[in-house]
TrEMBL record:
GO terms for biological process: SRP-dependent cotranslational protein targeting to membrane. Part of the signal recognition particle protein translocation system, which is composed of SRP and FtsY. This is Signal recognition particle receptor FtsY. The keyword Glycoprotein does not apply. Coiled coil: none annotated. The keyword Glycosyltransferase does not apply. It is found in: Cell membrane; Cytoplasm. It catalyses: GTP + H2O = GDP + phosphate + H(+).
């Protein structure tokens, strides 16, 4: 009986243990996921507006193109777009006529020249004209840069005429001095600037000189002189070495409606001069003015290049004028420059600038004697129309005053 009871207890324990194992394994198994709910169906997101966050577009009023703000201004409705400023063409100036220009500028010339005329008149008016007085007259003329040989000639003529006349009233002395000075300056020289060759067009004028004499400015002023006389002009900016020289010349040309031919900076000046004459012929203008680079007369290479410019230009036609620009304030030093330039190119005329300053009027006589060519133009100031044709009588009147 005890054995039966023990077997029953053991069976119950075994069945209990097996039941616990089954329940534990069931608890460890994961529950299956619940069935998925039906998703909400929505529209895909639209492209975001400029500056807006990427989100579903909101209902908003549409704007027409007229209501949309344009860049740089207000709404397009009734508002005109601002136009860029229009660059106005330069106003064409009408230069003063050249006839009588030196007479109009006489006051400016006489400011620095009266010392010569008044000094001579004072000496000649002395009661006794002894040797010391005549030496003072010579010194006055030499100080005015007249030159040794012209001074000796003038003094000899004055001495002879004063001795023969025997009378020396102020009016007679002034008339006597005026006649002799005009003779010394050379009233019979042809001072016309040759710009009208009989067999062709255009006339060709080359302007030469050393640095600092006002050569480019003189070329521009000469263009005004020619335009004032009814000529048409082309300017050749063959000064390719000096910075802004071509700009300066072009500005002068634009003022009077003259076309300017220019080349690259530091380019070949002979090429620019050649092109200027070529365009002048094609345009049918009356005159071509060629501004060359300022050259030191001591630089052989530069002077040789000036000769090359002349030869290249003459492939079109001969030069009608070669004008040498001299600073009148340099006095006798200008004569050294003039000699060397005359050896390289055939100088046909002189332009004396700055005669309104500290210049001495006698340089007119000296440079003409040195080169054997006339002074054709003189500069009497910084104004645009201060370049005047040289007139011996008006010049002498300014020297000796009223």
């Amino acid at each position: 009986m005890d054995i039966v009871i023990l077997a029953v207890v053991i069976a119950v324990v075994v069945i209990g243990a097996l039941g616990g194992l089954v329940v534990g394994s069931r608890r460890k198994k994961p529950l299956p996921p619940p069935p998925p709910a039906a998703p909400d169906i929505t529209a895909p997101p639209a492209e975001p507006h400029v500056g807006d966050e990427a989100e579903t577009p909101r209902d908003e009023p549409r704007r027409t193109i007229e209501e949309v703000d344009l860049p740089g201004g207000g709404a397009a409705t009734g508002t005109a777009v601002e136009e860029p400023p229009v660059v106005e063409a330069p106003v064409i100036e009408i230069p003063e006529p050249t006839a009588g220009r030196l007479v109009r500028l006489r006051t400016r010339l006489s400011r620095s020249q009266n010392a010569l005329g008044k000094g001579l008149l004072t000496l000649l008016s002395r009661e006794h004209l002894d040797e010391d007085t005549w030496e003072e007259i010579e010194d006055t003329l030499l100080t005015a840069d007249v030159g040794v040989q012209p001074t000796q000639e003038l003094v000899e003529r004055l001495r002879e005429r004063v001795r023969v006349l025997g009378t020396r009233t102020p009016e007679e002395l002034r008339g006597l001095l005026r006649e002799e000075l005009i003779t010394l300056v050379g009233p019979d020289l042809d001072r016309t600037v040759k710009t009208e060759p009989a067999d062709r067009k255009p006339g060709i004028v080359m302007v030469v000189g050393v640095n600092g004499t006002g050569k480019t400015t003189t070329t521009g002023k000469l263009a005004r002189v020619l335009v004032a006389d009814g000529r048409t002009v082309v300017l050749g900016a063959a000064d390719t070495f000096r910075a802004a020289a071509a700009d300066q010349l072009q500005t002068w040309g634009e003022r009077v409606g003259a076309h300017t031919v220019r080349g690259p900076e530091a380019g070949d000046p002979a090429s620019v001069a050649f092109d200027a004459v070529k365009e002048g012929k094609e345009m049918g203008v009356d005159v071509v003015l060629i501004d060359t680079a300022g050259r030191l007369h001591t630089k052989t290479g530069l002077m040789d290049e000036l000769g090359k410019v002349k030869r290249v230009v003459e492939k079109h036609a001969p030069l009608d004028e070669v004008l040498l620009v001299l600073d009148a304030t340099t006095g006798q030093n200008g004569l050294v420059q003039a000699r060397v330039f005359a050896e390289v190119v055939d100088i046909t005329g002189i332009v004396l600038t700055k005669l309104d300053g500290t210049a001495k009027g006698g340089i007119v006589v000296a440079v003409q004697r040195e080169l054997g060519v006339p002074v054709k133009l003189i500069g009497l100031g910084e104004g645009a129309d201060d370049l005047a044709p040289f007139e011996p009588a008006a010049f002498v009147d300014a020297l000796i005053g009223d």
